[in-house]
Amino acid sequence: MKKVLTLILLLNVVSLTAQNMLPNEILQSVFLIKVGTNTGSCFYVSVDSVDYLVTAKHLFPSTLPHNSSVEIEILRNDGWLKFKTTLLTHVNSQIDIALLNMNSSNIKANLFDLESKNYFVSQECFFVGFPFGLNMEDKGGKMNDGFPIPFVKKGIVSAFMSDSSGMTQIFLDGHNNPGFSGGPVVVSNFDSESKHKMKIIGVVSAYLTENKTIKTPLGDFINNENSGIVLSYAIDHIYEIINRK
Which CATH number fits domain 2-242: 2.60.40.10, 3.30.450.40, 2.40.10.120, 3.40.50.970? Predict the structure, then answer.
C-alpha cells in the first residue's frame, strides 16, 4: 500500500509539473523586436492564413496612422533582421495592441489558442518576453534557429475589466519589467474541445506604479515604485483590429 501511495504522489507531482511548464510552441513564437530605438517583445500568430506579429502599440510613434508601412527589426544570432510590415492598430486608441502584417502565410496554423474566454480570476498565468533586452542566446541555432529564447515570468489573473466601449483589460498579480511590453499572457486551456493545451489571452502593456514617500533629514522624497500589478489587453482585440475598415 505504501508503494502504491508513493507512486500516486509521484504521478500527481509529474502531472502538476507538466501543467506548469510552457511548451516550445509558445517560447519559439516570441521574439525581441526593435522599432527605431525602442525594443520590446512580440509574438507570431496566424489568422485566416495571414502571418502577423502582435506587440504593444506604444513601441511605435503615436503619429503613425493605421495601415502605415513600417520597418521593424528582429534579433537573430548577433544581428538584427529587417522586415517591411504594415502597422495595424485599433480604432480605440487606448488599446495598447499593434499588429504587424508580415505579408506572408508561412505559419499555416497556430499551435495554441488565441482567445480571451474561459479563463478565471486567480488562475495561474505566464507572461513571456525580453526584460531590459535580456535573452538566452540560441548558440549554434539548435533550439530556435538562432532566435533568442525569452524570459518567462509567472503570476495569477488578478482581475479583468471591460468598459462601455468594449475595451477589456486583464490585470495580473506579478512583477513586470521594461521589455516585456508586447509579450503574450499565457494560461492553461480548459476548453475540452481544443487540441491545444495552452492559450494566449492577452498582450502585456505595462505595470502600474505607486508613489511612496521617503522621509529624510533633507525632506521628503517621492519614489515611483512597481506596484506588482501588470496591465495587459485582451487578445480578442486583435480580431477587431484585423477587421477594421
Answer: 2.40.10.120
